[in-house]
């Protein structure tokens, strides 16, 4: 069957990736609310000042996060005359946290979410012009939350100097807008380890017939330990990075339910690269805080596949920890090995430099420029070198399921002092290689490596772009036992 992609599907796909699209805020035929706007500015100065009320709620429409008015118009153009007071009643339609700011007019609303209920922004417009309103939550403007305020007429004499009274409710806001400086906070003492235990691999499936499996995951935002003395607000699947490893066999039908914790501030979702259709699930799992959604898919292709959150700004959600893997075993299963491990690499972009003893915030500008401060295995510095070392005994065969969440950086995966006896490149069982030193793993890609360990010692897992080891990407495979004669010895023969 010929595959086609509609322009709207492309726009949606581009938008999911966080690329800024122009926002069609004003379709033809949208009526302006006052005579001055339609008859030019000459008469506007004579208009008595009025109060204009707009009701806006937020939502996700066609993959974009947007403001919607009570007529269903997406990112409507608001209109007023200079000197008018504008009242915007704001509500989070999908439950996530937002605000509305107009920096050109020094206007900002309070943050609002499902938890806060409605908030009212009330301000007087001092002058004519076209102004931009948007949500200042990081990433939200980039994926659609932006529109225009069109002000006609001439300012009344005092309009620019007398602010509208801020009297209508305690939630009304008339704040001077200052582009949020990121406050420096001490490391969060409640931060917990989010590092996934690499031994957390589901049992092998082997030779059974296809069946239906049910998985359930919860997206949770929580303060985690990024490094000694450094915390970060992680966004996770099941409170761990990477999220839990899922395991199925080819031909299985999988029902996956994704719940978003009640105290989340963000919408979350899941796109599994093992899924055919529905953007890998991302199209139908955009879950608001306190809600859940399910998808059902057939595991059509065997292999090791990455999954990740697919909610705008997607790289922001991935960099905050929202990735994991699903293994789809081929018919008959995989060869038996002594140990299996689950390891993923990701990079993190933080407001303060690597090593700062603070609570780190995500830095979207560094992310856009692909300049990470941290590279991590299993979510945090030391996850696999202190918290959860990989273990094996001489003579055992170790299989590592290795993936890259990214969002942006390729890994040159290598184990210092070992050779991969077998590599299933790109996580595919169709192209087995032997005797490999370093294997490339793309963002959103995976590999499976097998090593028969023959000498005791500490073997370091690294990305062989080795500057990254200094930024956190180091793991340890601790091998104990008696050396195999002739394999290695320190000193001369
Ligand atoms: Cu997410």
UniProtKB/TrEMBL annotation:
Residues annotated as binding Cu cation: 268, 273, 308-309, 317, 322, 464
CDD domains on file: Cupredoxin, CuRO_1_CuNIR, CuRO_2_CuNIR
Signal sequence segment: 1-25
Keyword Hydrolase annotated: no
GO MF terms, alphabetically ordered: copper ion binding; electron transfer activity; nitrite reductase (NO-forming) activity
Gene3D superfamilies noted in UniProt: Cupredoxins - blue copper proteins
Blue (type 1) copper domain segment(s): 78-151
One Gene Ontology CC term in the entry: periplasmic space
E.C. numbers: 1.7.2.1
Subcellular location: Periplasm
Names of the cofactor(s): Cu(+); Cu(2+)
Cofactor note: Binds 1 Cu(+) ion.
Keywords recorded for this protein, A-Z: Copper, Metal-binding, Oxidoreductase, Periplasm, Repeat, Signal
Top-tier EC class: oxidoreductase
Highest taxon above the source species: Bacteria
Catalytic function, reaction form: nitric oxide + Fe(III)-[cytochrome c] + H2O = Fe(II)-[cytochrome c] + nitrite + 2 H(+)
Domain Plastocyanin-like: 226-331
Broad class of the protein's primary localization: periplasm
Subunit structure: Homotrimer.
Annotated family: Belongs to the multicopper oxidase family.
Protein's name in the database: Copper-containing nitrite reductase
């Amino acid at each position: 069957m010929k595959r086609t992609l509609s322009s709207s599907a492309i726009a949606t796909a581009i938008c999911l990736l966080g690329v800024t699209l122009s926002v069609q805020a004003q379709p033809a035929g949208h009526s302006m609310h006052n005579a001055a706007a339609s008859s030019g500015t000459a008469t506007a100065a004579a208009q008595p000042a009025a109060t204009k009320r707009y009701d806006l709620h937020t939502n996700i429409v066609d993959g974009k996060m947007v403001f919607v008015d009570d007529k269903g118009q997406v990112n409507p153009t608001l209109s007023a005359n200079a000197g008018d007071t504008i009242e915007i009643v704001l509500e989070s339609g999908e439950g996530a946290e937002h605000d509305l700011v107009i920096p050109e007019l020094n206007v900002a609303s309070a943050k609002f979410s499902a938890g806060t209920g409605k908030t009212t922004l009330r301000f007087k417009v001092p002058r004519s012009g076209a102004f931009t309103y948007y949500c200042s939550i990081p990433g939200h403007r980039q994926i659609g939350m932006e529109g225009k305020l069109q002000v006609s007429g001439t300012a009344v004499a005092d309009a620019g100097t007398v602010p509208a009274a801020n009297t209508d409710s305690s939630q009304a806001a008339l704040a001077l807008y200052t582009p949020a400086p990121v406050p420096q906070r001490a490391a969060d003492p409640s931060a917990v380890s989010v590092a996934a235990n690499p031994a957390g691999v589901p049992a092998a499936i082997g030779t059974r017939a296809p069946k239906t499996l049910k998985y359930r995951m919860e997206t949770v935002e929580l303060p985690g330990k990024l490094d000694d003395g450094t915390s970060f607000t992680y966004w996770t699947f099941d409170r761990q990075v990477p999220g839990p490893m899922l395991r199925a066999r080819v031909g299985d039908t999988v029902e996956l339910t994704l719940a978003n914790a009640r105290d989340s501030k963000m919408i979350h979702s899941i796109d599994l690269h093992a899924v055919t259709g529905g953007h890998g699930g991302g199209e139908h799992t955009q879950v608001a805080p306190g809600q859940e959604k399910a998808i059902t898919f057939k595991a059509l292709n065997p292999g090791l596949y990455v999954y990740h959150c697919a909610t705008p700004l997607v790289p922001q959600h991935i960099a905050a920890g929202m990735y994991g893997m699903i293994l789809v075993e081929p018919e008959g299963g995989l060869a038996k090995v002594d140990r299996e491990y689950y390891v993923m690499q990701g990079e993190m972009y933080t407001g303060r430099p690597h090593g700062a003893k603070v609570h780190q915030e995500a830095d979207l500008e560094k992310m856009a420029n692909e300049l990470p401060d941290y590279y991590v295995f299993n979510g945090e510095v030391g996850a696999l070198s202190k918290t959860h070392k990989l273990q094996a005994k001489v003579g055992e065969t170790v299989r590592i399921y290795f993936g890259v969440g990214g969002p942006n950086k390729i890994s040159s995966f290598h184990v210092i002092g070992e050779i991969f006896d077998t590599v299933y490149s790109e996580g595919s069982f169709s192209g087995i290689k032997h005797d490999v030193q370093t294997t490339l793993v793309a963002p959103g890609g995976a590999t499976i490596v097998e090593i028969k360990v023959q000498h005791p010692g500490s073997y370091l897992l690294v990305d062989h772009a080795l500057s990254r080891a200094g930024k956190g990407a180091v793991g340890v495979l601790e091998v104990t036992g008696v050396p195999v004669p002739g394999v290695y010895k320190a000193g001369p023969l």
